Amino acid sequence: MSTTNQFSLKKIAVAAYGPSLLFGMVEGAIYPIIALTARDLGASIAQAGLIVALTGVGALVNNIPASLLTARFGERRAMIGAAILAIIALMLCVSAATPIVLGVGIFMVGMAQSVFSLARQTYLTDAVPVSMRARALSTLGGVVRIGLFISPFISALLMQFMGLQGAYWLASIAAAAAGALAFTLPDLERDNKYSAPDGTRDNAADTKQQAANSRRISVLVRQYRRSFATLGIACMLVAALRASRQIVIPLWATHIMLDAATVSAIYGAMGAIDMLLFYPAGKVMDRFGRQWVALPCMVTMGTAFALIPFTTTLFGFVLVILLLGFGNGMGSGLVMTVGADCSPAHARPQFLGLWRFITDIGTCGGPLLVSTIAATAGLATGIGAVSAMGFTAAAIFWKWLPRR
User: Fold this and answer.
1) What is the predicted pLDDT for the residue at 130?
2) What's the rounded Cα separation, in Å, for the pair 124 and 140?
3) What's residue 209's pLDDT?
4) How close are the terminal C-alpha atoms of the chain, in Å?
5) Which tens digits make up the pLDDT trace of 265-275?
6) 230 and 150, same structural domain?
7) DSSP-derived secondary structure for 222-291
8) Residue-level pLDDT at 200
9) CA nearest 346: which of 168, 142, 205, 169?
10) Are 92 and 104 in contact (CB under 8 A)?
């Protein structure tokens, strides 16, 4: 009997997805109100935007340290520590009297987020057979999306009675629950039985030597520079496209005179389509190969961004944004799956920390690129630049991503 037939995602569902769902709720609860909190504390619009961006900056700077801590102490203890850090950070946000204190708290939330993301990606990459890897990781991305989707509705109810602080208290409860769940989970026994597609194991002595050689990040960069310079760049562009939605959609909606409530409804519809596609996307990647998802995802998103400047009515704008959500949903788990495929079994946490560092550059840089170009050459030109990134990523995937 094959390892695929013996293995079931249901057996590890709580361990793999529970902490990610809960931490997704942490992020989803506070993201919509960070800027509002900053404004209430006296921050300017530009300062509020910077504070919002500090979540991504915190994740970016902590990816490599998080990988080293996870490799040394294990995923379980790393997540417990990250949950404690998140709770402290959220309490800072609740008690913040100045924008600076709020910014520190938001930065720390981003640091904690990088630990949770890395720990669960590493766990699933080691625990799941290669033949089911894409489904497992796309489901991970889908579970996080579910947490991001449902928690704003719960926090909205709490804020009716507690004000903006209700969202931070919900996030604190979710972070505590994530830490408590992590406390009950066993660490994964790494025998790497699913590391090789042909079912073979590394020679123990060779693996030990490889691990010793790969402890230094510089060694990993040198050994896997081709992967980082090709598929890593493509995944960075994917992350940039996804992050750019957060600035392109509201700015163009404002340009065509849509109100905030309408924009929120459009976001909800886009998120719903996004969530519906995560498991089918993983199944296609496992069955037919990564290119069958990577290329349609990037071409669809690139096309949708290219069409946005031509929309002048609500109906046209909604159609294009739904197409954008469909394209993004097709790529659920793509970045994590490609990174897992490239990662060596003997230094997986460190490699994935580097991989996340590269992709988070795209997450931080995409909106910055749009803002910079929009300020100098107009919003439509900035959106066109984002569209070009999608087609560039598709070309790199076509050239470098294995057909099967």
Assistant:
1) 83
2) 9
3) 44
4) 23
5) 787 788 788 88
6) no
7) HHTHHHIIIIIHHHHHHHHHHHHHHHHHHHHHHHTT--HHHHHHHHHHHHHHHHHTHHHHHHHHHHH-TH
8) 39
9) 205
10) yes
Closest CA to 158 of 148, 168, 150: 168
Q: Is residue 232 located within the same domain as residue 187?
A: no
* CA 65/CA 51 separation, integer angstroms: 22
Task: Give CA separation, 65 vs 20, 206, 236, 340, 351, in Å.
Answer: 20, 26, 19, 19, 12
Q: How many domains does the chain have?
A: 2
Token readout for 14 is 């709580």
Total residues found in the chain within this entry: 404
Q: Which residues of 344-376 are buried (b: 16+ CB within 10 A; e: fewer)?
A: bbbbbbbbbbbbbbbbbbbbbbbbebbbebbee
Query: Coil, helix or strand for 96?
Result: coil
**What is the pLDDT, as a whole number, of residue 142?**
85
**Predicted pLDDT of residue 208:** 52
Rounded Cα–Cα distance for residues 103 and 158 (Å): 23
Q: What is the pLDDT of residue 206?
A: 47
- Whether residues 146 and 248 share a domain: the answer is no
Whole-angstrom CA distances from 69 to 58, 118, 238 are 16, 11, 27
Using CA of residue 307, residue 333, residue 105, residue 69, what is the dihedral sign? Answer: negative
Dihedral, CA of residue 313, residue 319, residue 320 and residue 323, to nearest 10: 170
- One domain for residues 185 and 226: no
pLDDT for residue 57:
87
Residues of the chain short of pLDDT 70, as ranges, are 1-9, 45-46, 49, 187-215, 260-261, 264, 403-404
Please state whether 186 falls in left (phi above 0), alpha (psi between -120 and 50) or beta: beta
CATH of residue 272: 1.20.1250.20
Task: Give the largest Cα separation in the chain, rounded.
Answer: 65
User: Range of 22's domain?
Assistant: 12-192
The pLDDT score that the predictor gives to residue 7 is 65
